[in-house]
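Contributing new records

If you add data, match the layout below exactly. Sequence lines come first and carry their own label; structure lines follow with theirs. Keep one chain per record. Anything else will be rejected by the validation script.
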Amino acid sequence: MANKTLSILVAGPDAASTRPLLDGLSGTGDIRVTAVEGFADVTARAAALAPDAVVAALGGADRATLDSLFQLARSGGCAVVLFADRAEPGVTAAAVEAGVASFVVDGLRPDRVRPIVDTALSRFAAFETLKRERDEARTQLAERKLIERAKGILMQQKSLTEEQAYTALRKAAMRQGRRIADIAQSIITASQIEF
């Protein structure tokens, strides 16, 4: 995380609970910290600030607070790091399922905050890369299916070989300055028109 100023939103039920987080994140010039007391507007503040991470000291957070923080983690907009004094059964599993980057129980000490946040940010970035690669692979697969279907239509309607059908798709895409998948979709759509 070097060479980039990190934006961190720190939250807790009160100033005393956020103090260890602020102490753990202070002392380095590469972090811009915004602190909020209470959890009522954490989601709105996160949307407005677009931080790299939301770091929260839960204290005795209720289920509604946890749900809002879990929803923030699900949104994928930033890494969410939670520190709790204790966790009821199932809360840790729910945090992991929601995509919380780090959930630390009974371990909030200022000297631990920065390494935990750095690790959570790295894990979050790696996970986002995996999601982006997955989405790209899904898009490529969907486009291949469109192209295969359009080739089949051209082969049937125009008595072309598979290679000729693909060449026709490619040439049409080049002529029109469009992607082959877009041309394929047009052919599929046109074939579905009933007269």
